[in-house]
Specification:
This protein is α+β, with helices and mostly antiparallel strands. It has helices at 19-25, 63-74, 113-153, 160-180, 194-206, 209-262, and strands spanning 4-12, 16-17, 30-33, 37-43, 46-51, 55-59, 77-78, 85-93, 100-101, 105-108. It has an eight-stranded mixed sheet with strand order 3-4-5-6-1-8-10-9, with helices on one face. Strands 2-7 form a two-stranded antiparallel ribbon. The longest helix has 54 residues, at 209-262.
Length: 263
């Protein structure tokens, strides 16, 4: 086949996209759909891939065309990102059966919808990992600032409520990654297709998804370990306060009894 090139661009635009509602309102040119993804063939060599966890991937569209689609997606999204995380990849399709990947270009000999979806899926995963890596670093910086205050002042300033918020964000991040990203296991479409399985492994290696996933896991573990200390300290402080309240009440009761007896 004659070589052609497609430019893929992925954006993490929101926390969630309501795919069911979007599919209902825009059924035209939809090639495949599941509860977690919608795959559209918009025009010749132009495709759009929506993921429920807030990512949209385009192929060979102008900036204006992509912004137009994102304006439409906005009303189906929750917690829209004003500065979406972005990444791109150039793919050259030719007659070579080998899959080779350069710095930012993938060379591949097969082009069909499953191959196209596989490429778009992994580009979606790389911007998702970028987003959560940034979020993890922000949480860690915030936690570190409280740790520094603890070192200087000798006490913990972080309230239990704020610590619980950090824990909620950390757990939500872990759950999103576990539910939606195929870092270690092949996606379902590759289970019975050796070429797709090979492509999956090549893309995981190219985007360093496994290494970045482990780095994110390590960051979240450090955050979790720090939060365990803060929660334990707050629980101990509350327990001590309760003990003092009980002691004071007992003392008041004893004093009251003595006063009633001798006065």
């Amino acid at each position: 086949m004659a070589e052609k090139k497609l430019i893929y661009t992925a954006y993490l635009v929101a926390d969630k996209i309501d795919l069911a509602s979007y599919k209902k309102d825009y059924p035209d040119k939809l090639i495949s759909s599941t509860s977690s993804e919608l795959y559209y063939h918009v025009a010749e060599d132009q495709y759009m891939y929506l993921l429920s966890y807030g990512v949209v991937v385009f192929s060979s569209m102008t900036k204006g065309e992509m912004l137009g689609y994102m304006d439409t997606i906005l009303s189906y999204s929750s917690n829209w990102k004003l500065q979406p995380v972005e990444d791109d990849l150039e793919v050259a399709f030719n007659g070579d059966k080998q899959i080779t990947i350069g710095f930012n270009t993938l060379h591949i000999g097969r082009f069909d919808h499953p191959v196209n979806r596989m490429i778009m899926l992994h580009l979606a995963q790389t911007v998702t990992l970028d987003h959560y890596a940034i979020l993890g670093e922000q949480i860690l910086r915030n936690i570190t600032s409280y740790t520094d205050l603890m070192r200087v002042k000798g006490r913990i300033i972080l309230s239990k409520r704020k610590a619980l918020r950090f824990i909620g964000t950390t757990l939500a991040t872990k759950n999103t990654i576990a539910e939606n990203l195929y870092i270690l296991d092949s996606p379902e479409i590759a289970w019975e297709d050796e070429f797709l399985d090979q492509l999956h492994k090549k893309l995981v290696n190219h985007f360093e998804l496994a290494q970045r996933y482990r780095a994110l896991e390590n960051t979240l573990k450090i955050v979790g370990d720090n939060l365990d200390v803060y929660i334990s300290y707050n629980n101990h402080r509350e327990s001590s306060r309760l003990e003092w309240i009980i002691i004071i009440l007992i003392v008041i009761e004893v004093v009251d009894t003595l006063l009633a007896k001798f006065i």
